[in-house]
## 1
Amino acid sequence: MRKLLDRYNACLARRPLFTGMISSGVIGGLGDILCQFIEINFDFKPDRAKAQEIECEQQAPSKKQNIDYHRSKSFFLLNTLWMSPIYFVHYTKVLPYLVPVVTSTSVFKKLVVDQLMLAPLYILSFYPVMNFIEGISFDQSKKDIEQKYWITLKSNMQTWGPASFINFYLMPVKYQLLFSNFVALFFNAYLSFMHNTYEFEIAHI
């Protein structure tokens, strides 16, 4: 495990954007798989997943529900091509520009900028971009934003605010990325659940 982590850190140092994109994509896909595992094994399904299950049972009643890897691929693409580049620029360019001096209060300043500037914009873009990847109409995106934006943003702040504080203040530097990825895995599972929670009446492009 130690060697694997060292190799990953070496790749991150040589090609930070590319390595971050791939790792974020993998975490996004695994987060969706985790969400589906809970849906399948604990009967905790969002509206869309329930409708898909009913549809599958009508077509093949004896067929057991399996992981939908096409759905996981959508999260991989979202994190790789959209989320990771945005956060890379934010953490390597924007935050150092806005909070250039490292002091005892700089962590709080970074948290404020992160949660009040980046988080609202990213969550606002999440549903339209994910729906675009899956070929779902913009009308559904508008409904998603109207119904889910504030609860998703609130959950983001409740998760990443404390997690970032713990990461910056308590975690050793060499474990900060690992801790962040661990939190991201479960938050991506939450985003997968939120994305798939609506009536299965979708107008495709």
## 2
Amino acid sequence: MITSRRLLLGSATAGIAATLALTGCGPAATATGTGSGPAAPKAAAATTIPDPCTLLTKDDITTLTGTKMEADGKAGANHQCDWNEPDPATAYGVSLQILPITKERFQQDAAIGHPVTGVGDSAYTLAGSLIALHGTVTLRVLYLPALTTDNTLVMNVEKKIATAVLAKF
């Protein structure tokens, strides 16, 4: 059951990462202009991206979600950290990803999402994730609670997590 729960979180985060990559919000989203037509947006200026696993402890995540969580390891090249609820009978999970981005690129990506107020410089939701701009970085928060269809609850938890992370920048 733990494996299937982690596969669920892994599949969800992989799907979000693919969506973000397709919309230009990801590690491969740095483009340069070619000789013809308008130039693509420039990559964000060299930005130091913190390891998201160091920004919140499992106790912080437990407090923010109301459910005991465990960290699943360190962030890799994709600058992502995942936490899972240890009880195999449930499927709670949180994924946090931080990537460089330009404001222009963020605005283009936000056009396909739904605006969210009160988080970062600007924010939107897309495919269940809250995506917030803070300076030259984008923060993606995905909260997967067990057995709920309450989107307001999910968004409120994602906003609390994003606010806690952005306070550390």
## 3
Amino acid sequence: MADDIAGVNINSGKSCSWWSANIGISSAIHPAWHTAKNHFIVVNPWDDSASAAEIAASQTKFQDSQAAIIKWILGPNAGLYSNEGDIFEPSFQKTFYGPNYTKLSAIKTKYNPKDLFIVTAGMGSERWHTTGTCTL
């Protein structure tokens, strides 16, 4: 289990307390951030000389073994910041954006109706193949 949680950085207490000052602000950020008591960062690096298979294993390690541990620690109402999130997050809409996803997706559709601009695990990316090369 120690290997499964190696590379975890936890910020808590005063370093997170200023987020609650923005609780009344309507923004794209997941509402869970406004009441966060902890901020976890999990890093799974690879060496510059790593093979493609080693890089792929490092990229999927979070979902394969670490996500369940972190989700158990954080509980069901936690959220993730998309810029620090895992691009392989299967429920990115709920996990990164929470109740804001529907509104944000509508805004993106209004200004980008043909999905010219896409990002993995971002607004509307569920309409695209995982390679980002074509719509589903």
